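Standup notes
- HV: blocked on the assembly model, inputs below
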Amino acid sequence: MRIVIVGAGEVGSHLAALLSKEEQDIVLVDNDSEKLDPLDAKYNLLTIKGHPTSFETIRRADAANCDLFVAVTPFETDNVTACIIAKSMGAKRTVARVDNFEYMMDSNRRFFREHGVDSVIYPEYYAAKEICTALTHTWVRHWFEMWGGELILIGVKLRENAEIIGLNLKEFSRRGHSFHVSAIRRRYDTIIPGGDTVINTGDIVYFMTRPEHVDELRQICGKTEAEIHSIMVMGANMIASRLSSELGKKYKIKIIDSDRKKCQKLAERISDIDVVCGDPRDNELLMEESIENMDAFIALSESSETNILGCLTAKEFGVKKTIAEVESIQYIGEAEALNIGTIINKKLLAAGAIFQLMLDNDADNSKVMALADAEVAELEVKPGAKITRAAVRDLKLSHDMTIAGLIRNGIGRLVDGNTRIEPGDRVVVFCLNGAIHKFERLFN
Amino acid sequence: MKPRRFIVSLNWAAIFRLLGVLVLFEAGFMLVPTIVALICHEPGAARAFGVSAGVTGLCGFLAYKYIRPTSRDMGRRESALLTASVWIVFSLFGQIPYMLAPSTHLSFSAAFFEAMSGFTTTGASLVESTDNLSSAVHIWRCLSQWIGGLGIIIFTLALIPMLNSAGGMQMYNAEQNKIAGDKIRPRISSTARRLWIVYGLLTLCLFMLLWAGPMTAFEAACHAMSTMSTGGFSTSSAGINIFNSVYVKVVMTVFMFLGGVNFALVYRASTGQHHTVIGNETFITYYRLILTATALFIIGILLNGAYSGWQSVTIDPLFQVVSLVTSTGFMLSEFKLWGPAVLFIGLLLIFVGGCAGSTSGGAKIDRVVYLLKYLKNEIKRTLRPNSVMAVRVSGRTIPMDRINNVVAFLCLYVLIIIAGALALTFFGVPLQEAFISAFGAIGNNSLSTADSIVGCDYLHLNAAAHYVLSILMLTGRLEIFTILILLSPSFWRP
């Protein structure tokens, strides 16, 4: 697939690096050669220096022959303009990153489509959604619902009190639970486990299960659900504002930021929240704002380090659930080890959205979540696909992926070695980085 | 396979396994002279090449089969090391036939020199008389130049899907010129494949044209390979003088000229993007340089009273200029009659070399263009210290760090010539000879022909001098930095 990515910022360069590992033809466009040069030397892709909204640049990137045109510069208008130009030249599908919720709404989608922007992505909105999910399920690290909740993928960090520590997967499945252990994240690696893999303390284990077994899973993992009423948010940025408008009525939200202008703006825009201007790293201020009584602490400042440390401080004060935005991919592993509840990363959320478009041109037929070094995808099996030819155990799937569950006739079920996948099933696949391009051969 | 989290130690296993794969390709190439030897009824040469191909293939196979790296990750250090070592390993295996073949029987150091001279397209030779070589050896000499012309790594990138990754990308960067920096396709393997298609088709055209002329099919094949790669090996000790044909000179001039052009540019031109060629300042400088040098040659010839018919003021100087500037190194026998001024201009041409991203050697015209523009700015700045200026080439601004790199490169280039010449004098080479052969070796240009007034007769060099020149050739071919970083302690102890 030929993919043009405009904008070598955080999201753009992450996407380019990720997709070039997926054996796609990547052309990366940016106006700043200082950003492009290191990527050009390091990754298997083509870089073009030029202004993102210039016809000449887009022509040089050969947008006319690309399958996917992704505009992810920091400026929404540039992104939309670039998409319009690319579409007019013949790009098959265009995606623009926006930062305005209006543009995401279904009622306005037609306008964009008519003007040449086929889809929009809004990483800050995805982040807010992710935080909402994390607040409703406080005991999990990841919660990913498939097919309206028929199947759920749950990532849980296991501690000494979990019943299943020390078991290998064969013993675990002999106990007759209705869970599928899809993957284990151990320190810096994600592993697709085999029958002999032992579950250790500190692992983040990804279980696939049906909604009625969630409580059972929580018990064997030794977790309790915490009720959330009040939330403290550090950083008055886009995500915080998005979050407040989604949740302002449901929870008591207090937002702290040191920038008075930002605070003022946020307070004017959203009515149901409490905005405090001050340094969120100042413990006295936090105590003044009664951090001890908070149920959740969400750190969304620009610096990943501040967010991680902020969450640790909040834990000290007894806050039950902490959520940190960690934009540096390397720090995600460290942050996970430090017991910070949920980690939000805009780049990964955007990558998930792009993978979704890559797998399926209709976009509504598949769903992808990107993790730090793995992806989970839900997709439909086409008639005659390779995967339908035999039972799962006889398929000799490569070691970097596993089929966790499937949805047949609207009913979710788990997959084991004897399951035979049929055309029309929707399967949930857990795969390590760099393996998504293998889907094409398996499922189509 | 998992990415390695810590990359302090070099991934030796991955390097050796990949070397094994590459050596397997070399073994495959050795089958060509073996077949030629069988066809031409040369039992000695057939045995020599058969044994060489067997040994090479076996080593490659064993490395490929039994070395199991725990990680496939190749960092920048591994890539640089692999790229440098692949040229050495290719020469080490490629020299076996020269040691075994009855028509050469070179010593170890001489055979290594000969093989390195082939792969780096230098074209210097230690064979006493090229006329007595068997056809298999001729083919192998020219084939090795042809492989080395565009680059060993870039050849394998086109064929091994395993290298179509970030690691392959870095190897490409270590072998290719950073100045040209032209990827023509997003993925490195398809870039490499297209460059090889251009190269292969040009070679095929040249072969047809030469064959249509006075050459036999065998001579045409050898000369096509050594001309397109701007290498300069010939099937005769008299070089191309033996054909004494204007047709051959014209055809070769055209193809040597093409061999000195950036292949990405040739590809773009062939796909109809002519504006990229017309607007390319390097290309414009390249042909202007050739035209100017030819004019100066003609003046030199006339002043020196070497006029001997219309050819001596038209095609002869043009052929010689193109041959020198592209580092091919074919010498016309008349060259020595043209006088010292012409010789001096010739040396300058060797220094400058062809365009970056081509098969030619030298310091590369691109760098000279950058340097001249930069110097112009600096001179202006002395008068108006506050003016802000950018170095602009082909309508694009060149970032300052690249200019720094160019200046550093040119300084190193000169320093290495001096160091190389100094080393040669230690091994008993006379001063002038030492300088000129070091100069030629790093520019991948063979200045030595028995009947030329310049350069040295490589035949009486001792083993140490062979190695010095071999290293110089490799340093020049990989454009200095890739070799030089291997010599720095920080490479081994990061």
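- HV (later): unblocked. Chain A has 16 helices and 22 strands. Chain A touches chain B through 20 residues (CB under 8 Å).
- Next: hand off to the docking folks.
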